C-alpha cells in the first residue's frame, strides 16, 4: 500500500487524500503535525529535504512531493486526466496557476487567520493577500460561468487542485458569495460519489 504523509489542516494534503478516496486508492496515512514542527525534523527531511507535506511514499520506497505532482501521479490513467494533449496541458495550466496565483494568497491568509489567530504582526501581510486572492477567484469564476469544471465539462485533477483551498477561502477572509460559478462548482464537487470533507482522512487505510 502507498503511504501519504500529511496533516489534515493543510489543503495541499487534502488534495491527495480527496483524490485517493475519489479513485478508491487504498492509502496508509501518516500524520505529520506541522504546528508541532514535525515536517522540520531531520528524520522527516531525510524523506523530503524541502521539509514540506504532502509526501507520497510508494511501496518500493520511492518518494514524491508536491501536491499537484502527487495527485496527477495517483490519477494517471483515470478519467481525471484528459487524453487530449491540449486539455492535458490545460490541467497543468490551472495547477501552475493554483501554485503561483491562488495558494500564496488564499492558503496563506487562511493560515494566518485560522491557525495563527490573526496576530498583530501578520495583520498587514494578511490584508495584502486579499486583492490577489480575489483576483484568482474572479479568474476561476469567469471560467466556471462557461463550463461545469475548470478545463471542460469533465472533472479533472485541476479541479481538485483548486477546490482544496477555494472551498475554505472564507476561513482566510474571502467572501465567496459573489462568485456564483464557484459556488455551483463547489456543490458539484461535494456531490461526487466518494467525496470526503477536509477534516476526514481517507476511508481505505
Ligand atoms: N508546493 C507544495 C507546498 C507544500 C506546503 O507548503 N506544505 C506546507 C503545509 S500546507 C508545509 O508542509 N509546511 C511545513 C511546515 O509548516 O513546517 C505543495 O503543493 O505540496
Topology:
Blueprint (H helix, E strand, L loop, with lengths): L1 E5 L4 H12 L4 E5 L10 H6 L7 E3 L5 E3 L1 H9 L9 H31 L7 H22 L12 H10 L13 H11 L15
Parallel strand pairs: 1-2
Antiparallel strand pairs: 1-3, 3-4
Helix pairs in contact: 1-3, 1-6, 3-6, 4-5, 4-6, 5-7
The structure holds glutathione.
Record keyword descriptors for this entry.
205 residues, alpha+beta, Glutaredoxin, Glutathione S-transferase Yfyf (Class Pi), Chain A, domain 2, binds glutathione
Describe the structure.
There is one protein chain. The protein is α+β, with helices and mostly antiparallel strands and 205 residues long. It has 2 domains: 74 residues, 3-Layer(aba) Sandwich (Glutaredoxin); 106 residues, Glutathione S-transferase Yfyf (Class Pi), Chain A, domain 2. Helices cover 49% and strands 8% of the residues. The protein has 7 helices and 4 strands; from the N terminus they run βαβαββααααα. The protein has a 4-stranded mixed β-sheet, with helices on one face. Helix 1 links the parallel strand 1 and strand 2. The longest helix has 31 residues. The chain is globular, with a radius of gyration of 17 Å. 36% of the residues are buried. The structure holds glutathione. The site of glutathione has 13 residues, from helix 3.
Mean pLDDT: 96
**So what's the oligomer here?**
single chain
Query: Which ligands accompany this protein?
Result: glutathione
| H-E string | EHEHEEHHHHH
CATH architecture of the largest domain: Up-down Bundle
Radius of gyration: 17 Å
Question: How would you briefly describe this protein structure?
Answer:
The protein is built from seven helices and four strands; from the N terminus they run E-H-E-H-E-E-H-H-H-H-H. With 205 residues, it is of the alpha+beta class.
